[in-house]
Amino acid sequence: MNRTAVRVTAVAVVPALALAGVAGTGLAVPVITKTENVISTEIYLRARHKYDEAIKGDLPAGRVSARLFVAHVRAECQNVLAGAPPGRVTEEFSREASGEVDQALARPQRGPSIVFARKIERLRWTNRLLTYYVHGSAAETRAEAELVAPDLCTDARAMAASHY
Question: In this predicted structure, what is the pLDDT of residue 31?
Answer without folding.
Answer: 42
